[in-house]
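Morning!

This is the sequence you dropped in the shared folder:
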Amino acid sequence: MRAILFDLDGVLYQGDEVIPGARETLRWVREAHIPHCFVTNTTSKPRRDILTKLEQMGLPARLEDIISPPLAAARWLQAHGPGPVALFVPEATRAEFTDLPQWSGDSHQPAGAVVVGDLGREWSFARLNQAFTCLMQEPRPVLVALGMTRYWKTPDGLQLDTGPFVAALEYATGISPKILGKPAPAFFQVAADSLGLEAGELLMIGDDIRGDVEGAQQAGLRAVLVKTGKFRPEDLEGGIRPDAVLDSVAGLPAWWEREM
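The structure's back. Tokens below.
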């Protein structure tokens, strides 16, 4: 292991509260000169807003250290150039796609790609149906999913994330999504490329048994599950086996020293 990928919500903080020991763990990472970055499936805000939140919480980072699905998707769309992009993402997140041609919203104009992120309460039947009708145009657009996370934990309880809405569109249209967020291997590869390392040299720290642990392992990384955030005891009863389970990210330095 040569570098560490940190999930954010549920690992370093929960809502607006820092996980105890998170600041100390990040200080250890910096002082030990361990390459690292932050990988998040957050699609409700641009990376600059994520950076601001980290700084306000005393969790230092750089913009280039934050890997998010909108960033990965924008890079993929720029490389493949499928045509105008229909964005079903929060208004703030559109900032990550400003360099791409935008779909006008005209039902008679075909889109090259339909990008689906976490719209939360902005989803409605009309909004979901608009994405559906856009995908049914000929030639068929690419369906780009900014992650397939099923749900996440908010101060008010569990809330649906992007995955269920992408699954609904896939079922209705028969179009398999191009996933550019956790747990897709392509997303973890973006993080590996940003660090200049191979996937097998990375360790993922997450609270999601599927999106963080299983996704990372299938991409060739090692993965540690922390018992904070969305963790539930039944996560340890399935067929997914983390490389380690820690009470929280605070236990990472001692575990790392033992393993190394």
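Headline: The mean pLDDT is 93.

More detail when I'm at my desk.
O.
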